[in-house]
Design brief:
The chain is an alpha/beta fold and 455 residues long. The chain contains eight helices and 30 strands. Helix 1 runs parallel beside helix 7 and helix 4 packs parallel to helix 7. The longest helix has 19 residues. The N terminus is likely disordered.
Length: 455
């Protein structure tokens, strides 16, 4: 959807882009990063680019799921506390044991959790079902081998019967050799890393986590922890966006606020290109006299962002950065393109805190996920019923995104704070964004609308 809106007085009208058009342009240009081979822990958070099959069964051998005694079923049949089965203990079997004692008729082997089931044994009786080899009543646990080496010999009284394969983890009961362990496209979290290690993989081929450099602009910005002076505010945007980039799966680098000077900003961006797969700026994209991002980036990259394909990211139309006005609130001014010899993609976001964050969720997060090679790049959304004291107004021909809290149990959503793009406190208490379409100017309580889930 698109329309036109007047620019400054006396200037030619500039096209007003829709949210969907702007996002489509970004996703059409940003390509997944090239795969690399990484050590397992370095691959956490990355996307697998190959199917991984199981080379060996898990577990690779029958093993005990309990501390107890490996026995033959016939030897403990009918055992009770009054008439226990008395068995000769022929050895100790710990996890990792090599040579195993054979268990014959009338015999048992003391066995620990995870230890291989010895030849001849058909089941494991937990130590609590025995006297632990002490000749007394039911044992509460096993005496450590170092403190009681005689526990590996002598006799044990078993007070309960056991069925075949009781407390035995069968070979291949987790996965069989040749099974698909993980499919291409899987994001590697701790459980997936554990599985890869368990099947013996030391490295894995993945798309790396994108390196995202975030910098904010404005001479009025002071870093948290420093003293405020007249006319200054704390820089929250770079912290919010760097945190959001990490949450999206990227490696984020935050650059301190850059003063309102085009040459300084241009030099800072060029210095950051060496460690960036994606650059994100915030502030300086509107029509003010000191909106230096537009001044600094309107021509940068025109020479080197040619028609050739980028090796790892973007092919902007015509090269350089394109600054646009979008039919949305908040976040009307936006910029997108590529800079530098490697055609590094850059997204320029507005400076108001809520505008900046909403823009990140709508445009930057999908770009990061696209660089990772993920098919689902945007946040999930649901339909919910508006719960409010009065109708919510929305500007005509603008898609409005309002901070909200979503109640999954009741299927309702409630506004949080006002619509001002500077009201960052309300954002900290929101878990979603209510979406009011362009053709709607008022939403009555009880009406249904789309809700983007942020958590």
């Amino acid at each position: 959807m698109s329309s036109t809106a007047p620019q400054d007085t006396g200037r030619q009208q500039q096209r007003l882009w829709s949210v969907d058009e702007h996002l489509a342009d970004i996703l059409a240009a940003v390509r997944p990063l090239e795969p690399i081979e990484l050590q397992l822990l370095d691959a956490q958070g990355c996307v697998l680019v190959e199917d991984v099959t199981v080379p060996v069964a898990l577990p690779p051998f029958d093993n005990s799921s309990m501390d107890g005694y490996a026995v033959r079923v016939a030897d403990v049949q009918g055992a009770s506390e009054e008439f226990p089965a008395v068995l000769t203990v022929v050895g100790d079997i710990a996890a990792g044991s090599g040579e195993l004692p054979s268990v014959g008729p009338g015999q048992a082997a003391r066995i620990m959790t995870g230890a291989p089931l010895p030849p001849g044994a058909e089941a494991v009786v937990p130590v609590e079902w025995t006297d632990g080899g002490t000749g007394g009543g039911a044992a509460a646990g096993m005496t450590p081998a170092s403190a009681s080496p005689e526990g590996a010999r002598g006799e044990v009284r078993v007070h309960r019967a056991a069925e075949a394969r009781a407390h035995v983890r069968a070979r291949g009961s987790d996965v069989q050799a040749g099974d698909l362990a993980l499919a291409a496209g899987t994001v590697l979290g701790p459980p997936q890393i554990a599985l890869l290690a368990a099947i013996g993989r030391g490295t894995v081929r993945v798309r790396p986590r994108p390196r995202v450099v975030v910098l904010s602009t404005g001479s009025e910005l002071v870093q948290p922890g420093e003293a405020l002076t007249s006319g200054t505010i704390y820089d929250s945007n770079s912290f919010a966006l760097a945190a959001a980039a990490r949450d999206a799966g990227a490696i984020a680098y935050r650059v301190g606020a850059v003063a309102d000077d085009a040459d300084t900003l241009r030099a800072t961006i060029e210095d950051q290109l060496i460690r960036a797969d994606l650059l994100v700026t915030t502030g300086g994209v509107s029509v003010g006299a000191y909106d230096v991002v537009k001044e600094a980036l309107s021509t940068i990259g025109k020479e080197d962002a040619a028609d050739s394909e980028s090796p790892d990211g973007v092919v902007p139309a015509g090269g350089g950065i394109d600054f646009r006005k979008l039919a949305m609130q908040p976040g009307k001014p936006q910029g997108f393109g590529a800079i530098g010899p490697d055609h590094t993609p850059l997204l320029a976001l507005p400076g108001n805190p809520v505008s900046s964050y909403v823009s990140f969720e709508l445009f930057v997060r999908p770009a990061i996920r696209a660089l990772m090679g993920l098919p689902d790049v945007s946040r999930p959304s649901v339909r919910a019923v508006l719960r409010a004291d009065k109708a919510i107004g929305s500007p005509a021909a603008r898609r409005q995104f309002l901070r909200s809290r979503y109640d999954a149990e009741s299927g309702t959503v409630s506004p949080v704070g006002g619509s001002g793009s500077h009201l960052i406190a309300a954002l900290a208490h929101a878990d979603s964004l209510m979406v009011v379409p362009e053709d709607v100017t008022s939403v009555e309580p009880g009406a249904e609308l789309d809700v983007i889930l942020l958590g």
